[in-house]
Amino acid sequence: MRIAVLAHESFPDRAKTAVGLLRYGDHEIRAVVDREHAGQRVADLLPDVQDAPIVESMADVPEVDALVIGIAPIGGEFDESWRPDVRAALERGCDVLSGLHDFLEDDAEFVDLAADHGGELRDLRKPPEDLTVAEGTAGEVDARVVTTVGTDCSTGKMTTAFELRDAARERGLDAAVVPTGQTGVAITGWGIVVDRVIADYAAGAVERLVETPAEKDVLFVEGQGAVAHPAYSGVTTSILHGSAPDALVLCHNAGQEVVHGYESFEIPPLPEYVDVYERLSAPVADADVVAGAINTSGMAAAAAERAVAEYADAIDAPATDPVRDGVTDDVLDAVL
């Protein structure tokens, strides 16, 4: 599928879905729509991913099949400044995919335009209607289940899951990512966005996801939020218990000391955070933090190397920056 990705004034740092699609998606991305960086290319801002031109609006996008809203804002609200581009995409007969909490199918104008021009509105965050509470059966799957957890939101849990999947496949294993967020669902074409699920059913949704892939060697469950986050700890716990993991990988941003957007809350010391995750998992699944992933983007090479080594010491487990350095053998060995 040929797609354009909307990332106005957020690319690349706050356009998580856009970056995920560029790095791991199978779609042909023909343009990124971002008025702030119009005239540049993706490669100018983000190396080692699929390249594409950055344009000001849908009027500058070549022929595509769909527009994907590539921004994951806090609260998941639709920004009215995006309306002209969504309208233009629908008028061209394109599908529009969104991972927002504000559903496109609840917008009368978009519904009418889709009907008139033959496009489809796809709200990736809309959960299945037949979800139930967990039955406590995820631990019975034959695959090894590895869940990524974090010290905050946006610490690379999804990225780490995909990098681990790719590294495991290079070892000849049948590995898959279990998507629990809108970006993972957009990349893989399946999954459930757990933060939109009724709280009673959230662990059950994750349990269903873990039990869905057939005959896999290893499943990498995409974590969400952080257990010490003042707003998003609920979805973290649901994924942790619903996935009943065999192992955990802790993700962290180098140098980050407070919760993003909640700066009055300090991130607990890393050894303490490891202990919290392991103790929280223990009643459902005896899973240790066996490895760590750390985001060192923006750091010079020598400083990044030190940060990785210090992180490994702090969590008492092998660690890597999976984007800068790839999944190292010691990390993959520990995970598998």
Largest sheet: 6 strands, parallel
How helical, in percent, are the residues? 25-40%
Query: For the record, what CATH class of the largest domain applies?
Result: Alpha Beta
Strand residue percentage = 15-25%
Give me the secondary-structure category. Answer: alpha/beta
Mean of pLDDT: 96
Explain the overall architecture:
The chain has 336 residues and is α/β, with parallel strands linked by helices. It has 2 domains: 2-123, NAD(P)-binding Rossmann-like Domain (Rossmann fold, 3-Layer(aba) Sandwich); 138-335, P-loop containing nucleotide triphosphate hydrolases (Rossmann fold, 3-Layer(aba) Sandwich). The chain has helices at residues 16-24, 42-45, 83-91, 108-117, 157-170, 182-188, 199-211, 233-243, 270-281, 301-315, 329-335; strands spanning 2-6, 28-33, 54-55, 66-69, 95-98, 121-123, 144-150, 175-178, 218-221, 247-253, 258-259, 262-266, 288-295, 319-320. Strands 3-2-1-4-5-6 form a 6-stranded parallel sheet, with helices on both faces. Strands 8-9-7-10-13-14 form a 6-stranded parallel sheet, with helices on both faces. A two-stranded antiparallel ribbon has the order 11-12. Helix 3 links the parallel strand 4 and strand 5. Helix 1 (16-24) runs parallel beside helix 6 (182-188), helix 3 (83-91) packs parallel to helix 4 (108-117) and helix 7 runs parallel beside helix 8. The longest helix has 15 residues, at 301-315. It starts with a strand and ends with a helix.
